[in-house]
Design brief:
By secondary structure, this protein is mainly β. It is 0% helix and 49% strand. A 5-stranded mixed beta barrel has the order 1-2-3-5-4. The chain starts with 26 loop residues before the first strand and ends with a strand.
Length: 104
């Protein structure tokens, strides 16, 4: 476990094996902040964030949206519309490669 301001263990405990605090899941790589746009699946949330990119040909800036699936442990239990911090991890399923670390 990294000693970082993002990694403050939640007060509630869980029995999820894919929890970065109470399970055996290790985080590494990229860190992103985004907003939860869907929380329909159990233990899975869709996190979306926007960024701006410059198009050199037209000398303009465009907004691009990124959408990824992330694992939502029981102890964090983020809901629709929450702003969250996610970290990259090993593949949890076919599409999930991120885990929610904390709510803001």
């Amino acid at each position: 476990m990294q000693y970082n301001k993002d990694f403050v263990a939640p007060e509630t405990a869980c029995t999820d094996k894919n929890c970065p605090y109470h399970g055996s899941l290790r985080v590494h790589g990229a860190r992103f902040e985004g907003i939860i746009t869907s929380a329909k699946s159990p233990k899975t949330v869709t996190v979306t964030w926007t960024r701006t990119r410059r198009m050199q040909k037209y000398d303009r800036f465009i907004k691009e949206k990124t959408k990824v699936l992330a694992h939502n442990p029981e102890c964090i239990n983020a809901k629709l519309g929450d702003k969250v911090v996610i970290y990259e991890t090993r593949p949890i399923s076919r599409w999930k490669h991120f885990v929610v670390v904390r709510k803001e």
